[in-house]
Amino acid sequence: MYLEKMLKYNEQFVANKKYEKYETDSIPNKRMVVFTCMESRLVELLPKALNIQNGDVKMVKNAGAIIRKPFDSIMKSILVAIYELQAEEVTVIGHHDCGMSHVDTDHLLETMTEKGVKQETLDTLQHGGINLHEEFHGFDTVEQSIRQSVQIIRNHPLLPKHVKVHGLVIDPSTGKVDVVSD
User: Fold this and answer.
1) Ordered domains of the chain (ranges, CATH)
2) Number of neighbouring beta carbons within 10 Å of residue 121
3) 178 forms bridges with which residues in the sheet?
4) What is the per-residue pLDDT across 104-145, written as a single tens digit (0 to 9) for each?
5) What is the mean pLDDT of residues 35-41?
6) Residues 40-68: tens digit of each pLDDT
7) Are the C-beta atoms of 142 and 90 separated by less than 8 Å?
8) The dihedral sign for the CA sequence 177, 91, 146, 164
9) Cβ(122)–Cβ(113) under 8 Å?
10) Alpha carbon distance 62, 46 (integer Å)
11) What phi, psi does 95 have (nearest 5°)?
12) Distance CA 84, CA 90 (A)
């Protein structure tokens, strides 16, 4: 079991005070929020490719770096980082070869039922006004998706006018970053 191994490692990590080299405060050194995908290939690559060190930025993640609604949890996190943690820039970073670019919502819902979610539950959610296809659909191009997320942030009624919002795409194979929106 992975959790047991992780916890055992953590005991040694704390006992040997390996945390000391990561000590910092809660204010991001670079005054930036980075909103990116939860892609496992980016865990170490993205910070290295952009020279982001521990304590430099607030990092917020979800599947696909997608914001669809102006008051979702990602947007709330961005606003808290701006108003409470002194962030002055927001950078949305998507990546090529993103799994969200080809999510088949019918297949996803089938997999949910195969893994134990009752069809009645899915039907109840649908009848309750939750469109599961809309909630889980991905995007056609990463560039278009990043532009959409950037626009939602830029046009948010609670975003201060001085906050800069950028959109980037990273190649998970090489770490090369391209500007999509600045």
Assistant:
1) 27-101+141-182 (3.40.1050.10), 104-137 (no CATH)
2) 12
3) 169
4) 999 999 999 999 999 999 999 999 999 998 888 889 899 999
5) 97
6) 999 999 999 999 999 999 999 999 999 98
7) no
8) negative
9) yes
10) 15
11) -145, 155
12) 14
